[in-house]
Amino acid sequence: MKIGIDLGGSHIAIGLVDENGKIIEKVEKNIKLNDNLISEIEPFIIENIMQFKLLKPIEMIGIAIPGTVSNNKIVKAVNLGINDYNLASRLKEILNIDVKLKNDAKCAALAEKKYGELNQYQDSIFLSIGTGVGGAVIFNGKLLEARNVPGFEFSHIVIQKNGTLCNCGKRGCFETYASMKRLKEKISKEFNLNTIEGEKIKKFILQNENNPTLKYIINNYIQDLAIGISNIINIFEPEAICLGGSFAYFEDIFIEPLKKALIEGDLLFNKRCDIIIKLAKFKNDAGIIGATLI
């Protein structure tokens, strides 16, 4: 058995995964960004893995990280405020189990390629749209990665000169316009909802779909999302695109308008009659499953 850990921008999930990619047991915890985040993460991981070890022998631990990983260390995870953190070494020393790290979108892409919606495609793109925007490229059936760092940081493509300030320090990054968290925050602030909980925001959207201000916010979001995705399509010409993260729970609201913006808008160099957009089969569990495939 293997353990997959998805360390997200707002939660951490730990799963016991069998040889077929099925999650047998799972524990989750919401986290808040603060200076003591590491001291909150480590005990939670250690405590729960010790419990899992009582159930089954553990072969390895894979951790999906929302940021840059190099030499099995976290170089930076801007949405967590973490830099130069050797999490794998610290956990291995305590648990005496091999620990491997990889960018979370890359992990999710591996899960969707092996077991999910990208299984039948040789060339595809995976985008995890949640707190930020993570990306991965499958080319000729294999995950593309740069030599020193994972690369393919689609989240930090600049789509607006001198635009919104990103957590990375640049302005106008794709994820500042395409992040589901930022969209939910914008809707909550505009309509005094006092929540960014996904189900509540989705319910509000469905109940107020004719509100002109809400329509304007959502239309701008779709247009910005289409610009970023069209840039990726123009470079890689994928057979299919798989979208995960919390975006996957808003399928009935966003997918058709997004397809329309991509096909009918003047964005694609090579025009298409249709675009295959899949929603991640494993939704928020993709990172857990993919972490065991590192």
**Can you count the helices?**
9
What is the first-to-last residue Cα distance? 14 Å
CATH architectural type of the largest domain: 2-Layer Sandwich
Q: How many domains in all?
A: 2
Instruction: Estimate what percentage of residues fall within beta strands.
Output: 15-25%
Question: What are the secondary-structure elements, in order, as H or E?
Answer: EEEHEEEEHEHEEEHHHHEHEH
- CATH homologous superfamily designation of the largest domain: ATPase, nucleotide binding domain
List keywords for this structure.
294 residues; alpha/beta; Nucleotidyltransferase, domain 5; 5-stranded mixed beta sheet; 13 strands; 23% strand; globular
Word description of this protein:
The protein has 294 residues and is α/β, with parallel strands linked by helices. The protein folds into 2 domains: 2-107 and 285-291, 2-Layer Sandwich (Nucleotidyltransferase, domain 5); 119-284, Nucleotidyltransferase, domain 5. The chain is 37% helix and 23% strand. β1 and β2 form a beta hairpin. α7 crosses α8 (251-264). The two termini are 14 Å apart.
Give a brief rundown of this model:
The chain is α/β, with parallel strands linked by helices. The chain is built from nine helices and 13 strands.
Give the secondary structure arrangement, pairings included.
Layout: E1 2-7, E2 11-17, E3 23-30, H1 37-55, E4 60-65, E5 68-70, E6 73-77, E7 82-85, H2 87-95, E8 99-103, H3 104-114, E9 124-129, E10 133-139, E11 142-143, H4 174-178, H5 180-190, H6 198-207, H7 212-236, E12 240-244, H8 251-264, E13 277-279, H9 286-291
Parallel strand pairs: 1-4, 4-8, 9-12, 12-13
Antiparallel strand pairs: 1-2, 2-3, 5-6, 6-7, 9-10, 10-11
Helix pairs in contact: 1-2, 7-8
